[in-house]
Amino acid sequence: MRIDELMPRFDLRTRHERVIAATPAQVFRASRSMTIRKLRRVRMLLYIREIFSRLKKQPLETFPVISEDPGREIVMAICGKFWAISGNILDVPVEDIKPFNRPGYAKAYWNFYIEAMDKGQTRLITETRVQVYGETERKKFALYWRIVGPFSGWIRTQILKAIEREALKF
Predict the structure, then answer these.
(1) What pairs with residue 12 in β-bridges?
(2) Given this model, what pLDDT does residue 153 score?
(3) Which of 89, 162, 87, 79 is nearest to 126 (CA)?
(4) Is residue 121 classed exposed, middle or buried when 0-12, 13-18 and 19+ CB atoms within 10 A define those classes?
(5) What CATH number should be reported for the domain holding residue 31?
(6) Nearest to 87, CA basis, from 134, 47, 126
(7) Listed range (38-47, 120-129, 156-165) with the worst mean pLDDT
(8) Quick one: which H or E segment has residue 164?
(9) Which of 1, 39, 74, 121 has the largest count of CB atoms under 10 Å?
(10) How many other C-beta atoms are found inside a 10 Å radius of the C-beta of residue 149?
(11) Number of domain units in the chain
């Protein structure tokens, strides 16, 4: 997976998957068009989190695609202080995300990986990896993740379900 090349070492890794009764092409197409803002309940959670970002005029949480293996994998990324109340998201140009390692911040990669299976089914895997730069920040992130981790898992599950619904339309 490209995510392995981009972030072989990490402080956090979560993984979710879903088997979908659709072709890899259908699942990839649906994955490629999916954004977390398409899901109403997820959008509400993001809006609450982003209130402080909006007040501080900081960038909102968006995950630009930084790498793609067409038909197989999409990798997105974001940099910031995720444990801060505003998320303190940085507006990092796509080409600067891979070498990003600013002390006091973190970098997160998030992918969709498609595996063909028998009987016209496809396994869709999503993985999130986070690397935190600084020991104090790792501790802050660990505390933050204890609170936010279950919500993040729920969001990933909702996204996989939405991709399945979309893939079955094609």
Answers:
(1) 130
(2) 94
(3) 162
(4) middle
(5) 3.30.530
(6) 47
(7) 38-47
(8) helix 135-167
(9) 74
(10) 14
(11) 1
Retrieve residue 164's tokens: 């399945």
Tokens encoding 117 = 């299976």
Containing structural domain, residue 126 = 2-167
Sign of CA dihedral 18, 20, 24, 27: negative
Per-residue burial over 73-88, b if 16 or more Cβ lie within 10 Å, else e, is bbbbbbbbbbbbebbb
What are the tens digits of pLDDT across the range 63-117?
Answer: 789 999 999 999 999 999 999 877 788 889 999 999 999 999 999 999 999 999 9
Looking at residue 26, its pLDDT comes to 96
The two structure tokens encoding residue 60: 């909102």
pLDDT, position 163: 96
**0.85 surpassed by pTM:** yes
User: For the chain, how many residues are written?
Assistant: 170
- Which is it for strands 65-69 and 122-132: parallel, antiparallel or unpaired? unpaired
